[in-house]
Amino acid sequence: MEYDLCVVGLGYIGLPSAVLFSQAGLKVLGVDADLAKVKAIQNNECPIHEKELPIRLAAAIASGNLDITSEPREAKAFLLCVPTPVTDDRKADLTFVEAATRSIIPVLKKGDLVLLESTVPPNTCRDLIAPLIRQGTGMDPYSDYSLAHAPERVIPGAIFQELIQNVRIVGGMTPEATEAAAQLFLRAGIKDVRRTTAEVAELSKVVENTYRDVNIAFANELATICERLAVNVHEVIHLANLHPRVNIHQPGIGVGGHCIPVDPWFLIHLCPEEAQLVRAARLINDAKPHKVVSDILKAHGHGNVGPIGILGVAYKPNVDDVRESPAMEIINLLQRAHRVLYIFDPFLPRYSNATLEEVMAQSTVAVLTDHASFADLKGSRILRWNRD
Questions:
Q1: Strands 113-116 and 77-80
Q2: How does the average pLDDT of the chain come out, rounded?
Q3: pTM for this predicted structure
Q4: Range with the lowest mean pLDDT among 148-162, 196-210, 265-279?
Q5: pLDDT tier at 387 (50, 70, 90 boundaries)?
Q6: What is the DSSP string of 234-275?
Q7: DSSP percent split of the chain into helix, strand, coil, nearest 5
Q8: Of 58, 49, 48, 76, which Cα lies nearest the Cα of 19?
């Protein structure tokens, strides 16, 4: 049996994507190397906290349009949705992309489409995926199969809405590959598909997240300046943003998630002499958790050995995602300072060691993630960085 689409990697992007395509009528095979995850999904257990996903996943499996397994099989198109973290020295770690590519080589045929969705450094399709496939099959992306990049552009908590409504960029190694990728997304009900080259598609996603990182760095630096001047940074930003051509982001405890704190390093290592502002922004945002720890200890009293309450572990509100979470970094720094922490996150019980009531009973409470359930908490001992 040949599937319409094989999705390799069933994480925050891959699993919703597999569900979306299957609900559009495509026969989809979802693949993941994690056998425990495969078994859980096969048993209708949703491994990801994402609105609409459990119901949609169950319906997709019940329809017969979505199969789940641990190894790729023959398909007309292959969608690679695997992580692209950075190494300890902040270089792009393309191990998962390479493994996903190698996994499809035994079943890849002439005329197939290989579509990379992972965010990657520019020229990854040309310099990594194409050579791997050529080595394994002898096939060339300019004549034998189609190779394209379509970077994901969604946020946890609203993935299905953004998968459908956000502009989708697709860029192929050839015009034919670009069109094949575009047609696949159009079949899934995505209305606005913009066609370009693989190199432009790869760079555009990195640039999107780098812009946001630089903007947040400016906001975080502005917060430090305003603190020095005894001025309310949130009021300053609000009034500045009334100008029609100004859009300053809000300061916070740092930058988290699988994209914004990672992708700028792709540019820095690709163009180290040119990416001076990008590097400075990364260093500012990476330093913010240390400033937050200093704020917490100052408010708590350096001689106070009592427990500190921590609310929120996730990198953003109302999700269970801790990838690159600055809250986790702050917790680690406080623990290294030998501080006793009472931690509660309603979305992450595995990281919680106390109830909300127990956290709120502490003399100092730091709200590191502004979950909706924390919005109405008030008190002079509650510290916040993301809003007034």
A1: parallel
A2: 95
A3: 0.88
A4: 148-162
A5: low
A6: HHHHHHHTTSTT-------S---SSSTTTHHHHHHHHSTTT-
A7: 45, 15, 45
A8: 58
Instruction: Catalogue the long-range contacts made by 330-337 (C-beta closer than 8 Å, 24 or more residues apart).
Output: 330/253, 330/254, 330/289, 330/292, 330/293, 330/296, 330/366, 330/368, 331/368, 333/289, 333/290, 333/293, 334/293, 334/296, 334/308, 334/310, 337/293, 337/297
Do the strands 365-367 and 382-384 form a parallel or antiparallel pair, or are they unpaired? Answer: parallel
Residue in the structure block whose two tokens are 């559009």: 24
Please identify every residue annotated as catalytic.
Answer: 205, 259
Backbone angles phi, psi at 188, to 5 degrees: -85, 0
Checking if the pLDDT of 48 tops 90, the result is: no
Nearest residue to 321 via CA among 293, 343, 347, 355: 347
Q: How far apart are CA 152 and CA 81, in angstroms?
A: 9
Stretch 64-91: mean pLDDT, rounded? 95
Q: Which domains does the chain have, with CATH numbers?
A: 5-191 (3.40.50.720), 206-384 (3.40.50.720)
CA-based nearest residue to 328, from 338, 318, 316, 340: 316
- Evaluate whether 279 touches 210 at the Cβ level (below 8 Å): no
